[in-house]
Each structure stands twice: as structure tokens, then as C-alpha cells.
Design goal:
By secondary structure, the chain is mainly alpha-helical. It is built from 10 helices and no strands. It is globular, with a radius of gyration of 18 Å. The structure holds protoporphyrin IX containing FE.
Length: about 220
């Protein structure tokens, strides 16, 4: 609420309806299956997370690919080829360092860390391309990857840890500071940035959500296949 009162009228969504982040979230929630989230509208095609039978090898493939994707997002905002990407530096949501520590832990446990898979490298190069040619579409992925990980991603991590890691809590699921506050800060920045976009640019960003689900779905599926 404190953040909302500091926002410019356009960032709050005045004159253009609700804040853009509400639209982004609504589109993402509809793309969940009914068993994944209460607001999901799609019929499930795979078993629900509760019935996944994860393997350490599959989970490691997912973690390695996730590290590549987060590292790519973090490098893109650090480089800021589009100047306003710099607004998304040091949000506190960054995940490549915690994932590096987790992979070191798996190495100590005697596991071999695989190279990124085709799914991981395909997503990373798609993000690189979008970040230069299509900032609105890039931001859609930025939002979905970070926010999905704090919601469903965390739930999945807990289930997997219970089943195959003796409840070991990975760094991937730990944030410095209060997660809800970090998320709220990023929502505020996203609303501010999007307040200067045209309706067409906003719609273009929203329309990219399906691709975000497709790429992230490919990564997640590795956990149980
Ligand atoms: C939020 C589950 C995959 C994007 C959520 C929520 C749940 C959930 C339970 C919270 C709903 C609430 O606030 O009431 C899952 C499960 C998944 C999955 C079980 C897969 C097995 C994905 C994927 C994406 C995604 C692939 C996109 C790449 C989001 C976003 C939110 C969300 C953007 C909103 C977060 C927020 O507003 O803070 N998900 N999800 N999810 N999910 Fe997923």
C-alpha cells in the first residue's frame, strides 16, 4: 500500500484502467491448469505436481537450465541494451548466484552436473534475441520467470525436496529480505515502465505469456521425465 501511494497516477493505472501488472497476472493465471492454481482455466494434460515422480538427474537438468535462464536475464538487465532495463537490476529476486551454490552442493554430494539441455539453450538464446528486438515481449518473460518461481516454483521445490532430497532446502528457494516486499517493488517498477507503453505495446507484452509458459513448461517437465 505504501508503494501504491508513491506511484505516479499513470503507474497506478489511472486513465488507463487497472495497473498493468494486474493484467499480466490475470493472463498468466488463466494459462495454468485447473489443478495447478485456483484461477487456472486449462485442462490438465500431465499428472499434478503431487503425483510427480522426480529423479535427481531430472531435477539437476532443471536446475542447470534454470541457472542458464536466470543468468541470461541478469546479464541482459546488467548490460541494459535498452536503457530502462537498468531499472530491473538488483531487485533482490536474482537467482543465478543461489543456483551456483546449489549446484556446488550437488557436486559435493557426488553428483555430476550436466551441461544445459537443448530446452535451456533454446530459451536463453530466445531471451537474448527478444531483449534486443522486442523489449515488451522480453519483459513478459522477465516477469513470468521470476514470479512463477516464487509461486508454483517454490511449491514444486518443496515437493521435490520431500521426495528425493531428504527435505534439503536449496538456496534457489531462499531470498534475502522479505520476498513479498521484493515482489511488490518489482511490480511497482513494472507498472511505472509500462505506463509509457501504448495499448498495442501492452497487448503485445500480454500475448507473449503463452510462449513464456511453453518455454518454462519444457524446463519443468524435465524434473519428472
Ligand atoms: C502463480 C502454481 C507453472 C506463472 C501461481 C500460483 C500457484 C501456481 C499456486 C499462486 C496463485 C495464487 O496467488 O493464488 C503453478 C504450478 C505450476 C506453475 C503448480 C507448474 C506445475 C507456471 C508457469 C508460469 C507461471 C510455467 C509461467 C512461466 C505464474 C505467475 C504467477 C503464478 C506469473 C503469479 C505470481 C504472483 O502474482 O505473485 N502459480 N504454476 N506458473 N504463476 Fe504459476
Amino acid at each position: 500500500a505504501a508503494a501504491a501511494t508513491e506511484m505516479a497516477p499513470a503507474a497506478r493505472g489511472e486513465g488507463g484502467g487497472k495497473p498493468f501488472m494486474d493484467e499480466m497476472r490475470a493472463v498468466a493465471m488463466r494459462l495454468h491448469t485447473k489443478d495447478q492454481a485456483r484461477e487456472g482455466e486449462k485442462e490438465p494434460q500431465a499428472p499434478p505436481v503431487a503425483r510427480w515422480e522426480p529423479t535427481v538427474e531430472g531435477y539437476l537438468r532443471f536446475l542447470v537450465d534454470s541457472k542458464l535462464v536466470f543468468q541470461t536475464l541478469e546479464d541482459i538487465v546488467d548490460r541494459a541494451a535498452v536503457p530502462w532495463y537498468a531499472e530491473f537490476r538488483n531487485t533482490g529476486l536474482e537467482r543465478s548466484e543461489p543456483l551456483k551454490k546449489d549446484l556446488e552442493w550437488f557436486t559435493e554430494q557426488g553428483h555430476t552436473i550436466p551441461e544445459p539441455s537443448a530446452a535451456g539453450t533454446a530459451y536463453a538464446s530466445y531471451l537474448e534475441e527478444l531483449s534486443e528486438k522486442d523489449p515488451q515481449a522480453f519483459i513478459c518473460h522477465f516477469y513470468n520467470v521470476y514470479f512463477a518461481h516464487t509461486a508454483g516454483g517454490r511449491m514444486i521445490g518443496k515437493k521435490v525436496a520431500e521426495k528425493i532430497l531428504n527435505k534439503k532446502e536449496l538456496e534457489f528457494y531462499k531470498w534475502e529480505g522479505t520476498l513479498s516486499q521484493l515482489l511488490q517493488n518489482v511490480r511497482t517498477t513494472l507498472n511505472q515502465v509500462a505506463s509509457s507503453w501504448s495499448r498495442e505495446e501492452k497487448d503485445h507484452c500480454l500475448e507473449e505469456t503463452e510462449k513464456s509458459f511453453a518455454y518454462s513448461g519444457d524446463l519443468l517437465r524435465q524434473i519428472f521425465t
